[in-house]
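User: I would dearly like some help making sense of a protein record. I have put the entry right below:
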Amino acid sequence: MSKTVWNRYFFGLALITSLMLLVWIAGANAGAQSTVTNQWTASVSKDGSKIQLNLERRNTRGGRHQNGNSYDFSELQGLTREQALNGGPVNFSLVREAGKIDFEGSFQNGKGSGTFRFTSNPAFVSAMKSRGFDFLQGSDEDEDRLFTAATVNVTTALADELIAAGFDKLNVNDLFKAAIFKVDASFVREMKASGFNDLGLEELVKARIFKIDAQLVRKAAEMGFQNEPFESIVKMQIFKVTPEFVTEVRNEGLTNLDIEDIVKLRIFKIDAEFIRKAKAEGANVDVESLVQRKIGVARR
């Protein structure tokens, strides 16, 4: 697997880890509302449609964690695009089911900074516990867990959707993954309609990371690859197997190919030009022979 592909995959996993492993709010009161105050910075996207909010939280022991997410302006109560671009003092809020984050500070030329305060929602805690998700475990991480749920928008509706879809052994961290990568009932239905009826949550997250959806599955079928295993579709996406590439190599005589063959051609960068040259020199044009020829060319 190429370095770029691995970077993309592990970026997705790192995003999950960084958002879930927040360990530095000490002494949270597990049975009541609690508040924390820390620093925020923000910048408006180039097209002006979104705002990137970076939240920095510290504990009394000097620990620090940074959390960054992009939001539509409609998600922020009390802040408009014009305010962020024109500058001046601001007070706005991000209101989520898990709690409310209140911001105060100022903007100048599309960039802002200030402080924020998080207030958790006990009703959310109770509702989630009734569904089998315990956000309060009597540890220093309780408040942090709720804060993360607010920033990535974990909701009881999402929990209900996943449970109704047959995911009955999920934990809080699974909810974070589903919220971050937008694995909801709609996406589950989409993948089932595409023929993948038994994908687990981790596979659905992988599908989101590699941008696998019903359209991609249909594209694979149009290339002649129907009813393929999920991992084969993943490989097609990782190695950029396109209809154009498949048509090119088939036009050169490689007509009886499966996905493994196509992927192997992509890995070794065997294209139509390489195949034509091999044929002109009297070489065999089956996949294995072409791979061996490519390796030999690379070694000279």
In short: The longest strand covers residues 35-44. The chain has two domains: 3-152, 239-299. The beta strands are 35-44, 50-58, 64-72, 76-77, 88-96, 99-108, 111-120. Residues 1-11, 13-36 have pLDDT under 50 and may be disordered.
